[in-house]
Amino acid sequence: MRQSCPGLSLAKTVGVFELSRSSWYYKPKPKNLKRSCRPLDSDLVNRLTRLSGFELTLGYRKLTYFLKFQSDFIVNHKKLYRHMAAMDLLQPKHVTKSKKKKPPSAIYYCPLRSNIRWEADLTLVPYESGFLYLFSVIDVFDKELIGHHFGFRCRKEDAIESLKIAVLSRFPSGKIPDDFRVTLRLDRGCQFTAFDFAKAAKIFNVEIEFCDVQAPNQKPFIESFFSNFKREEVYRNVYQNPLEAFSAWTAYCDWYNNLRPHASL
Fold it and tell me: Is the whole model's pTM more than 0.70, yes or no?
């Protein structure tokens, strides 16, 4: 068609047949052609070779202004980048820093009997128009819930009350004997780090041990207890008022301590 109409453009020719212009060419152009390596500027190479000391720490943008004001040498920053890349003078994009891991302050343990290791924590229990606060203390060895306080407020006094109930449940005298060593592991919540809580623990003869910050795996037993409680009770019900939540908690405590099977026991 183009031979019969020499003045007809390629676009109009392929448009008549509703074809793409790229289909006209017999041999497609290779896509992966390497860019021709441009020769380096010998003057710029000599200037870069003479760099020393802190001058070698400059990136290509700062070095562009440095050469301009120090040596009155004007160069395009893209050209400088190409030369520095060829001479391996570019700054690393990511600097690997040596990290020194902080050893954990709380070590893992496996008690051989009851009344050696306790764990305590706080969690929230939702109801229709708000939240209730639950302090709990469990024995790590036998997994028994030995102390708790379930109420409307989240205070150090409530944490002390849960610890007091735990001590009375295992030691009716209200104080752990001197020949016993009970360690209570806690997180760093403000209720547990309060001076009055530490004072009460000293009166009860309980040793306090804190976990690291944001380290729930260092008190796994109380975290597991809260997980079981919410999965087996809280998430299966919607409490219309606090009384329903209190009743459900009382029933779950009786089920957990007396009837519920424990896989690790």
Answer: no
What structural domains does the chain harbor? 39-91 (no CATH), 117-258 (3.30.420.10)
Q: Which residues pair with 128 in a beta bridge?
A: none
Q: Which residues pair with 118 in a beta bridge?
A: 139, 184
Highest mean pLDDT: which of 17-31, 100-114, 155-169? 155-169
Beta-carbon neighbour count of residue 187 at 10 Å? Answer: 23
Lowest-confidence pick of 6-15, 35-44, 203-212, 215-224: 6-15
224 contacts: CB under 8 Å, gap ≥ 6 = none
The alpha helices in 91-235, defined as continuous H runs, are: 156-170, 195-203, 220-232
Bridge partners (DSSP) of residue 125 are 132
Rg (CA), the chain: 37
Nearest Cα to Cα of residue 143 among 171, 174, 173, 111: 111
